[in-house]
Amino acid sequence: MLSHSNQALRYRLGFVNPFGIDRHTLSPHRALSDAIVTAAVFTEVIKHASWRDLVQWSNEPALLSVLRFGRHRGERFDAVPEDYLHWIVEGQNELSEDVKASARYWLIKRAAAPGRAVT
Fold it and tell me: 14-22 long-range CB contacts below 8 Å, 24 or more apart?
């Protein structure tokens, strides 16, 4: 599973010494260190996206990776049975838009998978 934690992003993006700050002085989960790493990640993000993109993304539902409820609690959306994803999208109006949008995303992604007939 791909992590989006500060430290995972830091290493994936190659920020060994963000802003020239020695990595040995940065302690994960400490406020100042986390703020520095977050600023470095954000600096990289704005190189690739406009402010308009960032605002748009902030207003869209979040793409969730793990279910936090029900009989498939703790499972990744991409591993949840298709009929359960349909149940989320079509029958559960009290669920958040983030949950519904994530289920829709994975249904569409599965339908577009190579070798799979689109129904």
Answer: 15/40, 15/41, 15/44
Rounded to whole angstroms, the maximal C-alpha distance in the chain is 55
Residue 7 DSSP SS3: helix
Taken in order 12, 17, 22, 26, is the CA torsion positive or negative? negative
Cα 4 from Cα 20, distance rounded (Å): 22
Q: Under DSSP, is residue 69 helix (H, G, I), strand (E, B) or coil?
A: coil
pLDDT (tens digit, 9 = 90+) per residue, 19-68?
999 888 888 889 999 999 999 999 999 999 999 999 999 999 999 999 99
Q: Is the predicted pLDDT of residue 116 greater than 80, yes or no? A: no
Q: CB count, 10 Å around CB of 37?
A: 22
Task: State pTM to two decimals.
Answer: 0.64
Sign of CA dihedral 58, 74, 100, 78: positive
Instruction: Choose among 43, 19, 45: nearest CA to 33.
Output: 19
